[in-house]
Amino acid sequence: MYSWKTKIRYTETEQDGRLSLTAMINLLQDCSTFHTEESGRGLAYHLPRHEGWYIFSWQIDIDEMPRLGEEVSVNTWPASYQGVIVNRDFEILRDSDGKSLLRARSIWALMNLDRLLPLKLDEEKEFFPEEGPVAGEWGGRKLRLEKDLTFEDCRAFDVAPEMIDTNQHMNNAFYIYEASTVLPEGKHIRGIRTEYKAQALLGDTIYMKRCVTEDSVTVLLNKPDGDTYAVIRFLTKEEN
């Protein structure tokens, strides 16, 4: 397991002084990046080989968001390997009392960036041995969309330069951020589920639709032709 200790910064918080959704995702992906960098299998190793890690899904359960100034430990490890994909898990603990604040599962593949094909992970298994799953009840990678769900059109946005990462596509955190901007007021987020279907590139226009139910808000981020870039589902409960 790789562990990274950090303190929640003012720029990472929302109006209530707690960690924002976007900052939470960035903590998780930064932690996994530091893990690979410090193991000698980071960007300096992969980019000259035209390789990069692609994420296909997040499953995140949130008990409590840490507050401004709280010191936390962000932990990550490969839970299991399945062919050309790796299940990478995460947990954020509050240092003062050891409480588990949130847990996450994610699915990744190491891609050849020229052919957009997944690579074998034999060497990665040696650098990052599997350690078993994080505690929780988890589903599969794909998000089911029931036929009776009704979606309403929201806004559209263009993929801007600041959204592009080293894989030359929109970083996964921005899908979640943009989807969060169409959440109804009065909803408390207790979890996030995502399924990434296609990569959005610089200048692409993304059209958002949402479906609000009693315990979730599902947001589709679509192409102009109606095909889907990503599905973001927020598990919700009414705020007190």
CATH topology name of the largest domain, in short, is: Thiol Ester Dehydrase, Chain A
The top level CATH class name of the largest domain: Alpha Beta
**First-residue to last-residue Cα separation:** 37 Å
Topology order in helix (H) and strand (E) letters: EHHEEEEEHEHEEEE
* Total number of strands: 11
Percent in helix: 10-25%
Structural class: alpha+beta
Explain the overall architecture.
The chain folds into 2 domains: 2-127, Hotdog Thioesterase (Thiol Ester Dehydrase, Chain A, Roll); 152-238, Thiol Ester Dehydrase, Chain A (Roll), CATH 3.10.129.10. The protein is of the alpha+beta class. It has helices at residues 21-38, 43-46, 122-127, 172-180, and strands at 2-7, 51-62, 71-82, 85-94, 100-112, 117-118, 152-158, 187-196, 205-212, 216-222, 228-238. The termini are far apart.
List its salient traits.
240 residues, alpha+beta, Thiol Ester Dehydrase, Chain A, 2 domains, eleven-stranded antiparallel beta sheet, 4 helices, 11 strands
